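Pipeline run #58 for the internal structure catalog. This entry was flagged by the ingest filter as a single-chain record with no existing model, so it goes straight to prediction. Upstream metadata was stripped on purpose; only the residue string is passed forward. Reviewer on rotation: M.T. Logging verbosity set to normal.
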Amino acid sequence: QVQLVESGGGLVQAGGSLRLSCAASGRTFSIYAMGWFRQAPGKEREFVAGISGSGGSTAYADSVKGRFTISRDNAKNTVYLQMNSLKPEDTAVYYCASRSGSTWSPGKDDYDYWGQGSQVTVSS
């Protein structure tokens, strides 16, 4: 069983920054890819960013490319999402997820375990 615990969400003004953290337990963290997804009210959960088990490969949704950075510290079993230049349309509940494979995937159905979600609200 895997547990993912997120932290770092909150309220920020447009143009500001936040960093989300996701601490994992219960599996060998470094061999599994991780992803960040988000879900706004009334919308489908969407892919934000993904990172391979080693951290050597990353990917981003077009809507966040150049503003968000995903990273991981395998010694701390933690994955991060640094969010800069935030916009009101970034407002959503953000989820981290783990999948049984070393490569990231943009498909939410490819992930086995999910965190509880962290609210990010960006005011205009």
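catalog note: The first strand starts at residue 3 and ends at 7.
catalog note: The chain has no helices and eleven strands.
status: ready for reviewer M.T.
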